[in-house]
Design goal:
- By secondary structure, the protein is an all-alpha fold.
- It has 2 domains: 24-133; 136-173, no CATH class.
- Helices cover 70% and strands 0% of the residues.
- The protein contains 5 helices and no strands.
- The protein has helices spanning 24-38, 41-60, 72-133, 138-152, 158-166.
- 2% of the residues are buried.
């Protein structure tokens, strides 16, 4: 009896074994297409026509009865279809959940940036209002000049006299 020099360890994978390599994104895209198709009226119409034709052909026995009345083969076909459709639909829903999660994160980040920008603009606007509160206006300056002319006893500027006679200067007597 020949002696085996190398023993295979069952707890380690065999080196060089090739696996069926499937791109997960490709498979997920295909599952989304199938899930979209399963949710259309077109699919329901096609399925209804196939089921009605199946039942009619088996009841009338035009081509022989390959699936008699309880339609066990038809039930098996529906079970197989449901067994494949459910995981594909779940995979499509998971991908949609991932897209929704990413979109929600982007919306949240955009909202935070918008809030920060709005708060910055509010602070800048408040600073401008404070700065404008300290700016001398034309009417205030004219009133102060009139008070100064009155104290000095000098004749006011003719432009100031015209506006005073028309009643435009605030604080005019």
């Amino acid at each position: 009896m020949p002696e085996i020099t190398t023993q295979r360890r069952l707890d380690q994978p065999v080196a060089g074994r090739t696996r069926l390599a499937v791109d997960p994104d490709w498979f997920a895209r295909m599952s989304e297409k199938v899930a979209r198709f399963l949710g259309t009226g077109r699919y329901l119409a096609i399925q209804t026509v196939v089921v009605v034709a199946w039942i009619a052909l088996n009841l009338t026995a035009w081509f022989g009865t390959w699936d008699p009345y309880p339609f066990i083969l038809l039930n098996l076909a529906f079970s197989t279809q449901a067994a494949y459709a459910a995981p594909l639909i779940l995979l499509a829903q998971n991908r949609q959940d991932d897209r929704d999660r990413i979109s929600l994160e982007e919306d949240r980040a955009r909202a935070e940036r918008t809030k920060a920008d709005t708060e910055y603009l509010a602070r800048e606007l408040a600073a401008l209002r404070i700065a404008l509160g300290e700016v001398v206006t034309r009417d205030y300056l004219r009133g102060e000049l009139e008070k100064l002319y009155d104290r000095l006893g000098a004749a006011p500027d003719p432009a100031v006299e015209r506006t005073r006679s028309r009643g435009r200067v605030k604080g005019a007597r």
